[in-house]
Each structure stands twice: as structure tokens, then as C-alpha cells.
Write a structure and sequence with these properties.
alpha+beta, 9 helices, globular, ten-stranded mixed sheet
């Protein structure tokens, strides 16, 4: 069954990628996001779980973000652990493991393109986020075009403008070069500039490129999916930021231009491409290693849930 999406914006041809765009959808009752289907996806493709994390749910302290890995657990056991613990799971690029999920994001972006003349997107990726009651994701930014569609549970998302002081150029370059993993410095003074959205099933949002954001779950299991895409303009920004980041952080040269066209851009794009092809970006990127391992527990379910909460503290 084809999903439906409604974009709650006026004159999208003029306002697209300049403002936060609320989205409504009908996926809250779609069986692909049921426990049974999610458990099958996880169990059949354990390599799809890009990240498992826990955190301090009471403060915006990114240093409390700890990474984990699952060992010898079924898909349903993993979901039960999330439901009873304090965990955040990213089932990245779910569409490459099951074409039914890929069809969802392809449909969303095709429907959007019908309302935004000239919009051409590529490299569509859907990441399914499964997270515990009261879990949070700390202040960060993403490099591709981004959005979040909410399917189960309730959560609040804060979305902030880009640029100083919310996203300093040096911080963005560190993320693009891989020196840091999406995390950027947060200051409580940013709050008066945030757009706050209380997401319920059937709601979502798309936002302009690189807008920082953070999320806190309500008191229930949450299932959402990320919308990731590229355009030619986004690709150009990426190449410039990569070239500038290498110049600043590796060569000690302060870049002067962020132009995404012209001869200087062409030189930076060629340099950035060569940096990636040489393997240097991968070599210098921050490496993600689990801080602890989560194994199947031969205990009652209540004891299992308590154990995960204690492990997260």
C-alpha cells in the first residue's frame, strides 16, 4: 500500500529549504513498523544496526553518550531491551536490506518533488530509529539533507538555525571531515531561537541543510525514521566544507571562501574528491567503538529491563 504524505507549507516552490517544513503521513498503522516486522529486519540483518547507544536522560551532556553492541540476542529480545531500558538504536539504510522501506522514502521525496519544481534528489536513505522511553539524542547536525518522520510513541524535537553561534563553521568542518561524529557544542542560550515540535505518530518535519537539532522521548517506546537525501547543491556544499576543513584542520590554512560555483570551487571540489579517493578521509575519521556489550540475560523480563537501566547510569 502506497504511503501518503502531506507537506504543510505554503508556496513550497519559493520557501523550500528556507524554513522548517511540517509533514503529515499515514505510516502510524503501517505493519512495517510493528514489533514483528522490526524484529525480523534486525534479526535478519544484524549488520544493519549502525549504532546502539545509551545516555544520561536528565541532562544535555554528550559525554554521557556511550555506545554498545548486541550479542546473541534475537530481534524481539533487542526490542524488549529497548522498551525496558535506556537505549537508542539506529537501523541505518534499512531500504538496502528491505525494498519496502526504500519505497517509503522514495515515495516521500517523489511527492515532495511534485510540489517543488526543479528539485532533484538522489541517494535516498531511510534509517529506522528505535529508542527507549525518556531516551534523548544530544545536540548535533547532519551533513546530507535531513528530516524525521515519527511513527510510534511521542517525542519532542528542538530545531535550531544554522550558522553562528548555533553551528560555527569550524565545527561543521570537523563533522564533514570526520574528525567528530555529528556532535557540536550546545549552549542553553540557544533555546530562545529553537523551533520546538511535539511529535506524535503521523507527524514529521524536514528542515534546511545542516540545521542543528536535539530530541527527547516521551514515556513510551519510540519508532521514527530519518529522511536522508542529496541534491547537487548539497553535494557542492559538502565538497567545499570538506576541502575547507582539510585546509583548516590538517594544513593550518584558514579558508576564505565557501562559494559553491566558479573556478575556486572547482579546485576545492577536485581536492576534496582526491582526499576521499586517497583514503585519507576514512583514515583520519573518528572511529566508533562500543563501550560495552549487551548480551542475552537468562532472567525474568522485569529483571532484564532493570539491568539495562542500571547499565545506562
Amino acid at each position: 500500500m502506497r504511503p501518503t504524505f502531506h507537506f504543510d507549507g505554503e508556496n513550497l516552490a519559493e520557501t523550500w529549504n528556507k524554513h522548517i517544513l511540517p509533514v503529515r503521513h499515514d505510516l502510524a498503522t503501517n505493519p512495517l513498523f510493528s514489533d514483528e516486522e522490526l524484529a525480523k529486519l534486525i534479526e535478519g540483518n544484524p549488520q544493519a544496526i549502525r549504532e546502539v547507544s545509551t545516555m544520561d536522560p536528565k541532562s544535555e551532556d554528550r559525554n554521557s553518550w556511550k555506545r554498545a553492541s548486541f550479542t546473541d540476542m534475537s530481534g524481539m529480545e533487542i526490542l524488549d531491551a529497548v522498551r525496558g531500558g535506556l537505549l537508542w538504536i539506529n537501523v541505518a539504510e534499512a531500504g538496502s536490506f528491505d525494498p519496502r522501506y526504500q519505497a517509503i522514502i522514495d515515495t516521500l521525496l517523489a511527492d515532495l518533488a511534485k510540489q517543488v519544481p526543479g528539485l532533484k534528489t538522489f541517494q535516498h536513505r531511510i534509517g529506522i530509529l528505535i529508542s527507549s522511553p525518556n531516551a534523548r539524542v544530544f545536540y548535533h547536525c547532519d551533513i546530507p539533507g535531513q528530516g524525521l518522520m515519527h511513527v510510534r510513541g511521542e517525542k519532542r524535537i528542538w530545531i535550531y538555525p544554522d550558522g553562528e553561534p548555533f553551528l560555527p563553521q569550524e565545527a561543521l568542518e570537523r563533522v564533514v571531515t570526520g574528525l567528530s561524529y555529528e556532535e557540536i557544542d550546545y549552549d542553553p542560550s540557544f533555546e530562545r531561537h529553537a523551533t520546538v515540535i511535539d511529535l506524535k505518530p503521523g507527524m514529521g518535519a524536514l528542515w534546511p541543510l545542516n540545521y542543528p537539532h536535539r530530541v527527547i522521548n516521551g514515556d513510551s517506546l519510540n519508532v521514527s525514521f530519518t529522511v536522508e537525501y542529496w541534491t547537487d547543491e548539497i553535494r557542492r556544499h559538502y565538497l567545499v566544507n570538506l576541502a575547507n576543513g582539510v585546509a583548516r584542520h590538517f594544513l593550518g590554512v584558514k579558508p576564505r571562501s565557501r562559494a559553491i560555483s566558479g573556478p575556486i570551487f572547482a579546485m576545492k571540489a577536485a581536492f576534496a574528491a582526491a582526499w576521499k579517493l586517497s583514503g585519507a578521509k576514512s583514515y583520519f575519521s573518528a572511529k566508533i567503538k562500543p563501550d560495552f556489550e549487551i548480551r542475552k540475560q537468562q532472567k525474568r523480563q522485569k529483571e532484564l529491563a532493570t539491568g539495562f537501566k542500571e547499565a545506562a547510569e
